[in-house]
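Input record (one chain):
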Amino acid sequence: MMMRQFLSGLIAVLGLASAALANNGTMDEMTATISRGDYKDITSVLVLKDGKIVYERYFGRSGPQYLNNTRSATKSITSMAVGAAIEQGGFSSADDKVMPFFRVYDPIKHLNDTKKDISLKDLLTMSSALDCNDNDQTTPGYEDKMHQEQDWTRFVLDLPTMPGWSRDASGLGPFRYCTAGSFLAGQAIEMAVGQSLDDFIDAALFTPLGITRYEWHSSPIGEEQAGGGLELTSRDLMKFGQLALQNGVWNGRRLLPEGWITESTTAHRVVSEVQSYGYHWWIGDFFSATTGLVHKGYYMAGNGGSKVAVFEDMDMVVVITAERYNTPDMHQQSNDLLQGYILPAFELGAVH
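The corresponding structure, as predicted from the sequence alone:
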């Protein structure tokens, strides 16, 4: 299954098991090995260091104007959009309950107290009570079932709650990867701010960041898919990593609430021994193959192997775009590039 491959790949990649990490590679060697096809379907690699782009290469049919299908990396942009809506007063906080924004959809099926209690934070941490799990196609909210419907908002709102669901001591439920919940967070933004998700994100994020070329994937009735598929250039993807690195401030203007990035990249749910999840951001340790140093990073990730990784300790953002969809090694490749080439090169001063 597509999502099971995606998550199992994410969970496997953060160690030093791969033989590819045995090299002491340089950036030139990385360029060469990608160009000759040792790493499959990589379309771009960019590195921003100390606020400057210091490495930028495109491969295959890609180029500076190429629109990358970000797949689930879109979710991290949706997280930022929730923050922008809070900054502009559409929401009071991530603790806002979701269902009251959808009164126009009354009656909503299966609307019990547990469902009424679903918050933005529940959706952003993949821990809501909705019976939805993209690793289990038998669940009512499995992503492909939503895609078969005309009205995705109605589909998600009418989902039942997970049997036996409860909150733990942290106040959150169990982690279950749910793209439908991410989509609903985007629709909640629409309801809160009174305009389409496209128009809101364009004004709140894209225009300040200088992003003019993009394509949304949408439902049959035109609902933007906040859970995946937004198409952006590699440089524009990098801007979101830089915005995170700059704590939500761009050119002196605050776009996201103070502390939003810190809260978003805090480990709210533990996914595995090597991975945690924040507000639609993955969190984990990356190991340099040369020095053995550990760099804590948080990152956007999408099916195919695309990644936007932020390393605060190095003042660095790395963008890797890839189209190796639905393959077990897609995330291993991206992490091999990071751990075997990029981190060592910058640690050892090979690139400035």
